[in-house]
Write a structure and sequence with these properties.
345 residues; alpha/beta; six-stranded parallel β-sheet; 12 helices; 18% strand
Amino acid sequence: MRLTAQHRVALLLHQGLRNQGGKTGLAYLRYGAAPVVAVIDADCAGESLRELARIESDAPVVASVAEALNYAPDVLLIGLAPAGGVLPEPWQQEVQQGVEAGLSLVNGLHVPMSGLVETLRPGQWIWDARQEPANLGIGKGKARSLAAKRILAVGTDMGVGKMSACLELDRAAKTRGFNSKFVATGQAGMMIAGEGVALDAVRVDFAAGAVEREVLAAGQQADVVWIEGQGSLLHPGSTATLPLIRGSQPTGLILAHKVGLERIHNCEGVKIPPLPEVIRLYERVARAGGAFEEAKVKAIALNTFDLKQEEAKRAIERTREETGLFCADVVRFGAGELLEVAIAS
């Protein structure tokens, strides 16, 4: 499934704008191909999307799916991920209302929406993005055979900007004439790219194999492949990072970090080590004692969203001094310089 510029998207984002909690929807707002014609967030209805999300969009913020229908969408995209992966009953009713009104549905939740299929009209569809692909096997390290550079984004925590860094670098590479490919490994990336694998829907035995299959397909047609990172080796609840490393067999790593983050989000007992220690950890795990090729952390993708511009520049400089590596906020200041560092031999 692929959303194109011909689609018109209504984005379901209840309670996701004010606290930046609707990560999937906000990512689609920034990078998606289809225009977002309305954002649904009852807490922020009538407010400026530019001010709330700092994203260049004039889409109105409305209170309900019923109100969003006034802007003639043809797709409803669920852009939030509530605790437990299930929408509250009133929001489920809104989704059903949208489907009954003729909207196709893009669903990034763990719980599929296939129960609404009976209400579909000709030409209407439901895309449950977070599903395990068929016919998976275990990883076998085959990505090492590719000539393409394979750059994997890794992070100090979840939600620090790994996907954004890869998308910005892919865009910059294409602008400079590289045959570049982004490999999506989560539901938001898949909605943007139209393909990929939702890694957190894959049984752990087949996770590296699922990544390997996607990277092999991308690397056969590209000069450089950007693999979207998931989770963190530091996070006690994350199982995604290791299969990403093993499946992609990266030639280089980009470390994503958010300014001021000292402990794992929602795991206050887990302190994030100094960045030089994190860098050494990722490089050692990637090499696996010599079983695989060396993969160095090439640069730091720093998330400075909460800082003013001059503060962000100072934070970037401090991180460069701390790590001895190139550092940039590629969303805020562009990815051109980091691209040169990432693809250098």
